[in-house]
DNA sequence: CTGAAAGCGCTTACAG
DNA sequence: CTGAAAGCGCTTACAG
């Protein structure tokens, strides 16, 4: 058996009540001398608090559960950094649960694992909950916040980038660089895909503002993956577009590599701007110009809001990082 | 208040004991009819088990805590996949805790967060524990296993690649391709760095076997990062080596990009083989030839061993994946 | 097959 | 400043 406050009580001669009070630092309820004796004994005995007991009586905890999808996106690390930072500053703890990749069962397991214990709250990082699971989450009384994903339903709290602006600004940027035939590649615009549709609308708007007529084959949908980028590049015949907005860094890299394979030079023959701006952009050559999202801040702010119990939605900033993959036409 | 087994007992007319038995599926202790009524009531009431209570009485749980360092390495995802797979197959749950990047306090917080609750066991993914923290871990009665990191101390259980072999085979491979001046870049060989030293020894051994005299400046140490690769490439003057073993994929990419910058063509002027073999190798051009580690299997096996309480160490397989960054000399 | 009761390790009014 | 006692929601011998 491990050592409990009862053992400390026995050793010091105080009651468990007093031991509990000093160990959980209920200041003002004990004297310095008492505290010292108890802390000493705790250290000597190698005491470790049993949080299961604490949570049981407190009906809450200082643990934030982060549920995250395990896609090959690589920006979740930055979001988690932001979360950890804020949590660390405020003495909260964080546990992370993988919800699989568009896997309803995995999602449900993650959610259940989280909900089965007292929790400060839940942060959902780019996981698009299935209706049943959303229901499950709502029915629990636990506060939650979505990060890096937005909804039409404004009753759902989220922190994300403004995807309409992302599509708009990426396109505008290419237009300013003299492009008129601009592709949009690798994103999902099925009816339920809010992010993809917003980006698409932003793209259309930018085109329209400059009097450019959208051509159907400029849009190459996909699932934000490297392979989607390769497929999109194949779909664009040589010369059909002079620039492409890639739905993610991976899509951008897929385009880059496939372009090289079919003998197209970037940015000489084709310009590319990718969305996300993770460190992958600087690993490849030419380095990818990107619409960079502030993932760290998303995590930090999401945690801040969750902790403070605020229920407003917010957008974090986006920024154009010019690197080497776009040329002036 | 949320609904408890007491509520279900009241609603069905059974005792909490019976409710507990059917809900935790103590087969043989109840009739089908009873079970149905209770499950029905549980569903109607929206019952969710309070694991804090269960863990308190059981003094254990089916939760595996994974402690992982937050370096910019990108292979932990695969390890986690392997862990989740095995955990899923056996009905275990997994929570992940970030231990920072060589951050003693962050490590300690992660460890404490884990140890504060009943646990099936702990998996440490490429985290090199500070002595104090290792002590803390050992003093808890919880089983633990290291993944992707090995020790001289064989009392510590781990699953990793054979780093001596990694260094040996990478070097051997380059020798077979006709190289005699072979660099080793980006790894840490300070006395306490077990991995780096093993790889270095394997490298030396391969050199020696082919009667090649090691030159001090062939070794460029570092911290496995992209920047270490860049620095190493700068250190190798043009023509000093004809091939390089990169300590990680990121080091390899740093070499690739810096080589391009100073006008060296890979593999024409310089061959590179990187260690790890993550998907980054296929994202860059030329694609990196790599000594590929089986990270997924490490996670899977580590979890298997942890669950079964076995305490043997094991190596997972390594494999040479030929891509485009090595040429026959 | 089922129930009454004790207990897991902690916290917190309540009374001093 | 300190202690006795009740209670958090579960599980499990023990007795039927």
Automatic annotation (TrEMBL), chains A, B:
Signal peptide: none annotated. GO terms for molecular function: DNA-binding transcription factor activity; transcription cis-regulatory region binding. PANTHER family: HTH-TYPE TRANSCRIPTIONAL REGULATOR GALS (PTHR30146:SF109), LACI-RELATED TRANSCRIPTIONAL REPRESSOR (PTHR30146). The keyword Ribonucleoprotein does not apply. The keyword Transcription applies. InterPro entries: HTH_LacI, Lambda_DNA-bd_dom_sf, Peripla_BP/Lac1_sug-bd_dom, Peripla_BP_I. This is LacI family transcriptional regulator. Keywords: DNA-binding, Transcription, Transcription regulation. It comes from the Bacteria. Residues 3-58 form the HTH lacI-type domain.
């Amino acid at each position: 058996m491990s050592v409990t406050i009862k053992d400390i009580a026995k050793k010091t001669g105080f009651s468990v009540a007093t031991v509990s009070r000093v160990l959980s630092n209920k200041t003002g309820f004990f004297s310095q001398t008492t505290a010292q004796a108890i802390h000493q004994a705790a250290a000597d005995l190698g005491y470790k608090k049993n949080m299961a007991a604490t949570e049981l009586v407190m009906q809450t905890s200082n643990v934030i559960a982060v549920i995250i999808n395990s896609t090959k996106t690589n920006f979740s690390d930055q979001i988690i950094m932001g979360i950890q930072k804020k949590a660390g500053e405020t003495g909260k703890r964080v546990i992370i649960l993988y919800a699989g990749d568009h896997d309803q069962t995995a999602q449900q397991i993650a959610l259940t694992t989280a909900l089965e214990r007292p929790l400060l709250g839940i942060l959902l990082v780019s996981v698009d909950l299935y209706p049943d699971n959303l229901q499950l989450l709502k029915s629990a009384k636990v506060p939650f916040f979505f990060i890096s994903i937005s909804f039409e339903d404004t009753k759902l709290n989220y922190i994300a980038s403004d995807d309409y602006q992302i599509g708009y600004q990426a396109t505008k940027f290419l237009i300013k660089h003299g492009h008129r035939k601009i592709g949009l590649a690798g994103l999902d615009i099925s009816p339920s895909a809010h992010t993809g549709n917003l980006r698409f609308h932003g793209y259309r708007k930018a085109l329209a503002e400059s009097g450019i007529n959208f051509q159907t084959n400029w849009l190459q949908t996909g699932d934000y993956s490297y392979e989607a980028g390769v497929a999109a590049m194949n779909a664009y015949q040589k010369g059909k577009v002079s620039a492409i907005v890639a739905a993610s860094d991976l899509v951008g890299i897929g385009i880059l590599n496939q372009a090289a394979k079919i003998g197209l030079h970037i940015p000489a023959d084709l310009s590319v701007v990718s969305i996300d701006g993770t460190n992958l952009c600087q690993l490849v050559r030419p380095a990818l110009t990107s619409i960079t999202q502030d993932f760290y801040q998303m995590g930090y702010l999401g945690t801040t809001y969750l902790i403070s119990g605020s229920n407003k939605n917010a957008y974090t900033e986006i920024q154009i990082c010019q690197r080497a993959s776009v040329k002036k036409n």
